[in-house]
Amino acid sequence: MENTTLSATATAITPEQLLKHWQGHRGLTRRMIEAFPEDQLFTFSIGGMRPFSALLMEFFSMAFPSVYGVVTGEWVANDVLLKDAGVETKPTNKAEFLQLWDAVTEKLNEWWPKINAADFNKEIKAFDQYDGTVIGILLYIIDNEIHHRGQAYVYLRALNVEPPPFWDRSQDL
Amino acid sequence: MENTTLSATATAITPEQLLKHWQGHRGLTRRMIEAFPEDQLFTFSIGGMRPFSALLMEFFSMAFPSVYGVVTGEWVANDVLLKDAGVETKPTNKAEFLQLWDAVTEKLNEWWPKINAADFNKEIKAFDQYDGTVIGILLYIIDNEIHHRGQAYVYLRALNVEPPPFWDRSQDL
Lengths: 173, 173
Fold this sequence. Notes:
homodimer; 6 helices; 2 strands; DinB/YfiT-like (chains A, B); metal-binding (chains A, B); DinB (chains A, B); metal ion binding (chains A, B)
């Protein structure tokens, strides 16, 4: 019986490790915001793709609202969730982006441990519209950040700015 | 005691799920190879960055060699590991890239289950030079593929080619 239980819960990543991994990636994305020329943040584009500011707004729209939704079953946007956090949820300059980023970092650290470990394989309808498992949704959001941040690396290189190194994620596993 | 054991093995992702997740991403990267104009594969660049062919060679250099290395403790390159697979390990056209890709897909499916589930947190020296845990190294390789593939999305858009949708990873969780 004990062996059966162990085998059923074979673990590649624990919840704590996955949060640490994500926050490591988020630290890198934060350094990308710092490195990005402020006058290009809302405008620079290649091939008709969205500017970095729009990609960041997409990250924000999913990061804390997804974890909050997984924990509570309620899908609520940042302007409501962060009402009392004292940050601008629709940033219009780099400083506001960084402040919002840091507020979300704290919220993720506070709310992630509330996810029931038994729920990672639970089927949910994320944001009341996307069917998937909890882990599937969370990995999607992490991967989406890596994917679009890779896009922003090309923007920075095209702007002749050296991006922060991809391998350096000091909070990583 | 039983609770302690359960808590120590809380699982966000199982080894089987992580392989499925990676192969889902690899299926998307394969569709990027198919979509990429063959005459630009070895040459197209933005901001001095490497062409897509060089990024693909980096993926190849890590994917199967890392899993083989984790299982055996030996760090060996594809030209040796795939000697009998009947594929070109230094592709010079799109068809050869796809053949090598598919050979690696099979090898990953064959070798990943040989990873001892208890070893994911083991400290290793990957490729005889990078210190980290097994899970840390494997996640790095998966994330690196997502990151550079995001770069290739910008190349495709700049070449006025519609890339395959990021969200479609039919083998995904």
